[in-house]
Amino acid sequence: MIVTDEVRDKMIEIIKGKEIRPVFQPVVSLKNGSVFAYEAFSRITLKKCSFGISEAFDIAGEMKCLWAFELLCRKSSVKAAADKPQNAKLFLNLDPEIILDPDFKSGLTAEKLEKNDIDYGDIVFEAAESLAISNMDLFKSALENYRGQGYGVAISNVCSGYSGINLIPQVNPQYIKIDAKIIRDIDKDEMKRSYVSALSQFAGDLGIPLIAQGVESYGQLKTLIGLKIDYAQGFYIAKPSEKFVKISHEVRKQIIDLSNELNKAKFSPSYLSTVNELCSKKPALSPNAMFSEVYEIMNDPNVTETAIVDDDGKFLGVLTKRQMLSALSGMYGYTLNMRKNVGEVMDTSCLTVTNDTPVETASKMAMARCQPYIYDSIPVIDGSTKEYCGFVSIKDLLLASVNIQVRRAADCNPLTGLPGNIVIDEKVEKLIGSKEPFAIIDFDLDNFKAYNDAYGFTNGDMMIKAVADTLTELCCEGDFCGHIGGDDFVVITCGDRTESFCRDAFREFTVKSRDLYSEDDRSRGYIVSKNRSGSVEKFRLATLSAAAITNREHSFDSIKELSFVIAKTKKQAKQSVGNSLVIV
């Protein structure tokens, strides 16, 4: 847009007269439809203004008053955010070129937040990937400054600009927003679906949640949920509003129903066996050993491969019988290779696994290899020292995987599909004396009997499944979730995650369980049912009691000691009304 004198006058009038009003659009979870955050947008209130908000930022840049305009938008958004629902994030757009403005002051946002009593951790600065960044080092420095103050960082409009996903590893954002142009017609465009699916895998590997922008139809919503995108925003979900609105009951129900329909497969906990229990150590060679020495060793029909290690026993590569025969074949193969050392011909790019890799994981990795490597034994190395531990054969892997599947079927709870007491006990036994930080959290469903009596067994099963779904959805790789029986569950996770895991579980279960009550009971906040004596009594809506023990300050010598502490802690947690957590 050409910056005429009239346009300049209008922009000056907007800044001086504060002719800006903020609007907020919900960002919702595609698992349960709850509002996760709001994105703040600005609207120009000046009458007879010939340009919109997007053009206004370009004009402000041309006029060298970008920071003044950005500050006006930011202040109005933060001031209005005093009414923001507690714990909801607030996304604020950040023009990358703002940091080049001579009037830029990074501390002003902090002052404004404190004035409006807003938590730093709720603010996420959102920079558009599609915008040119003329000084990447300065830009990254500014974002690091924000991150260091406790703010979050998001990259938006990903896949729309020239820098592509290359910007992501450079900025290391907490959130990635997919551009609305990619989301448009994604339900009808296979190429877009494939692109977003690949991005989902990429972000998932990095542990970065994805947010889809510009969702405008039911078909797009369904496709995104099927692709396991974490969050979404758009006109179909809710339009930007001056107030912090919730999404409609209809749309929220669609999200919950689609999530239940399309994502039935829940987190599958890893069972006890690791490749360390299956691997056998075979003689290893130095990289300086002659090829002729390998030839002599592999004349033994029982030897199909040998590991190559350095002087400290660290794994360098592998040489298989198949590779050896291939090297010796042909008119000159024997002559050319027999006098070489194994370091020159070994395979350094072969698949390896660490000794703590679960059997099921190793099996999948082995079967994903291409021919002719698919049936080669897998070298096992120590995860810490990288020392060679041995080889695990494909036969042993597959047999162990079958045994695990049989055992899983026998031990799993038929309602939730989660492992039961046998596997739980084995998991706990492995933790005894462990120096790695861990937490064992016992979750108990409060007021379940009253609900079961009032609503019947079918609904009671749905309530139990709501707890199971809540816990499994929150579990990360390496976590474990088991079903002790009835309304008792156990989660084993990293000790540092205890409080955040329980807090998230309380919030997610509250959302899930509310749909299992009648409108009257929800509005009252209690149900009327019989107590254990047969008398009619009022019971609060179902909540969770969590009893957690960690090894931060105390190690446990036996399951008996551990069980005693959990039982005592559980009793304390049950004494509180509502969701409660007691940590030892």
Structure overview:
Helix 3 (66-80) runs parallel beside helix 4 (108-115), helix 9 packs parallel to helix 10 (249-262) and helix 18 (448-455) packs across helix 19 (457-474). This protein is an alpha/beta fold and 584 residues long. The protein has 3 domains: 5-262, TIM Barrel; 275-400, CBS-domain, CATH 3.10.580.10; 414-583, Reverse transcriptase/Diguanylate cyclase domain (Alpha-Beta Plaits, 2-Layer Sandwich), CATH 3.30.70. Residues 265-272 have low confidence and may be disordered. The protein has 22 helices and 21 strands. Strand 12, helix 15 and strand 13 form a beta-alpha-beta unit.
Compile the SSE list and pairings.
Layout: H1 5-17, E1 20-29, E2 35-44, H2 53-62, H3 66-80, E3 89-94, H4 108-115, E4 123-128, H5 136-148, E5 152-158, H6 167-171, E6 175-178, H7 180-183, H8 190-206, E7 210-212, H9 218-226, E8 231-232, H10 249-262, E9 284-285, H11 291-297, E10 305-309, E11 315-320, H12 321-328, H13 333-337, H14 342-345, E12 353-354, H15 359-367, E13 378-381, E14 388-392, H16 394-411, H17 421-431, E15 439-446, H18 448-455, H19 457-474, E16 480-485, E17 488-493, H20 498-514, H21 519-524, E18 526-530, E19 536-540, E20 543-550, H22 559-574, E21 580-583
Parallel strand pairs: 2-3, 3-4, 4-5, 5-6, 6-7, 7-8, 9-10, 12-13, 20-21
Antiparallel strand pairs: 1-2, 1-8, 10-11, 13-14, 15-17, 15-20, 16-17, 18-19
Helix pairs in contact: 2-3, 3-4, 9-10, 15-16, 18-19, 19-20
